[in-house]
Amino acid sequence: MAIISQFSFYVNAHSQELRGKFVSHTGKVELTVVYETGDRFTVSMADFTSKITGLMEQNIVDEGLRQWILPSFTTTTEDDVVAASIVMMGTLQAYFEYGPQICCGIPSVTLLGEKEDYEEMLRRVERLCEYGEEPAEFCKGLVPVLTGMVRTFEEGEERKEVKRFWETICDYQGGSGMDHYSGWVTAFCFWDDKGKRIKRFWENNAVDGKDIPGGFSKVPLKIDDNGEEIDAKMLVGSVAIVCSSSGKMSVAAPDYSLGYGTERKEMVGLDSMQPQIGWFVYENEAALGPIYDWRAAYRQLLEDRRLRSFLRNSSDEGRAEAVNTLST
Hints:
InterPro entries: DUF4419. This is DUF4419 domain-containing protein. It is a single chain. The protein is an alpha+beta fold. The chain is built from 10 helices and 10 strands. The protein folds into 4 domains: 2-102, no CATH class; 115-214, no CATH class; 218-288, no CATH class; 294-327, no CATH class. The chain is 37% helix and 22% strand. The strands form 4 sheets. Strands 3-4-5 form a 3-stranded antiparallel sheet, with no helix packed on it. Strands 6-7-10 form a 3-stranded antiparallel sheet, with no helix packed on it. The protein has a two-stranded parallel sheet with strand order 1-2. It is extended, with a radius of gyration of 32 Å. The relative contact order is 0.07.
């Protein structure tokens, strides 16, 4: 490290004289590593510096420079390689500009089922148009979404149009006490649970976060349980999120308990989410009577314990008073 640091000082002091030794371009070439998810706290500097020096190797005249600078000794650790990579970046900073570009978004999407399933859904939503003006408009918003899913099967995720489709699934804008969401996911937010059309904002059809409806329905039931009539309801819909692991290595968020910016190593963890469809049957709230106040009951229990303790440690007169209190 001491040797390459010294060399870095020299190169930076004579960058124009030595330009031809390192690069053939004029000015500075911008080298960027794109991360499709995460933030500045979760980007792995080990990954970033490795990729940057790889890009540098493609843009310098001396193909062996990277191998010459980066250590590969028997005692070399990952931290040693990262440190040397940063020194290499600093050595050639007169010829390059560096930076990670972190994009918010979904790193990957898995469409379950087959192309024919989505084509069938596309055919079925057309029937909505038979039920009135609003259902027809609802259908109009769903068609491009389902068409985009069909195209994902047909053209593959690497096609520019397909990637753009998934990049526009959802966008968040906050301010003035409101959280607005836009993107094609709002096509599934046309009515609230009362059947009233949800208000849209601006030209991008944004929806206020508090107006996003639940993805479930309720059905009233009258259950005859061996002669006992029970008022109940059935709830069905997207009731949970299932987290699972793809088995791929990923970088965990930094562990700040070990010091600011300290990164955890790559690991296999929960990195995938999938909506869970389910249903419940529960007794109607009105049939249960007054809602039991657990806090009040707990306070009463504590008070009773204090009184019983008082009974054990007080005079006969005090016991009589405590008994009257308990009975009331």
